[in-house]
TrEMBL record:
Molecular-function annotations in GO: transmembrane transporter activity
Gene Ontology CC: plasma membrane
Membrane topology, record value: Multi-pass membrane protein
Annotated signal sequence range: none
Organism whose genome encodes this protein: Lichtheimia corymbifera JMRC:FSU:9682
Keyword Transmembrane attributed: yes
Chain intervals for the UniProt region annotation (Disordered): 207-244
Protein name: Major facilitator superfamily (MFS) profile domain-containing protein
Amino acid sequence: MNFTVTVYIIAQALAPALWGPLADRTGRRPMFLLAILTYTISCIGLALAPSYPVLLVMRLMQSFGASPTIAIGMYSYAISNGSSVPLIRDNLLHLRSLWHHWGYQHFVYVRRDNFINVIRVVLDNGYRRGTYFSLMGMTRHVMTTTAPMIGGVIAQELTWRWIWWILAIAGGIMVMLMFFFVPETLRSLVGNGSGYANPTPTQWWRRRQRLKRQQQSTEADPSQPPPPIPDTATATNIPTTQPRKRINPFKSLIFLKEPDVMCALVFGGLCFGTQQSFLVTTSNVLANIYHLSVMNVGLCFIVGGVGAFLGSLTAGRMLDSEYKRVAIDFCGHVPEKGEIPHDFPIFKARLRYPLCAAIIMEAAVMTFGWCVHTIQPLPVPLAMLFICKSSTIPVKSSLTSHSHIRFYSLLYPYWDIQRSTDIGG
């Protein structure tokens, strides 16, 4: 079982690096549809897998289709909420001018080609960001720990193959919802949303009706100028078209040469790798040492789900509270959007809390190992599961809210690389 998890996470680490550039070139909507369709087909293959090698291949394909949705979705959230600089490329290109404008004293922490300082400049509504990220991560973390419970019930009452059939049905429903209701969000194609690209059926029908009315109006009064029809060429807030470049899935690797980026990645990767390893081994421990049935093992993960839920709520409030405290000490008040000084100590505001949470998480993992080694009563290791899940979310929320959400979509795969390395075979 551990090997199947390792295969899944390796694909989860590598897939966003390929899907991301494709989404930036062709649009997010078609990549979302293709990714979820790939996931659905792989679930059908898993349900019908006749042998273990086929199961591994389908598991790899499943991860390849499912994992890009997180990175692409996080980047879509960044665009929809608006930032001071519309594109990652623009952030990097603006760094030289920022350097000359503010001088060396404001960039003493890192080298002049480091993009972290651009992130420090374009922070917006930072005192609310901790809550936003915690709420966004709540669903994922809660489902990660409650899914074994649902899977255990299905496997015991039906068979393990029905787990994949149910996931295939859910994936098919998501494909339909995405196809009919989710529009394109890539700024270079649709700008602020008024452009026309990769349309939903409703958008296509409305445009067709407008064109039909325009044609009828022109035939009735040829002297009347036709009303404009929004498209990718005329929509507002669309950046200047850039020449198409060849897709390079390894382009984001340039960020790994930055020392501060590597520190954040290693710290986050170790924490998430520890947490993932903890979840993988918990099932074996509960089944082999405490002799629980498949259903009871799944039910034990309810504790982790509750911890993830409470951790999400607590992390957001504590991050925002810490940010406000540092802002008041530094500025005398909580700055609004666009008013944050370029020398604001964002590292102090965002990274103090996750250090405490990481220490608590590691202590819970070590205590869990001691409980298993000495075969303590079942409530004790379950309490450690609760503490581990509730303390993991603050670490991730802190790192993502401290960095910048659009850069998170690029750096997310490398956390998975570190995590798959920690889990091993």
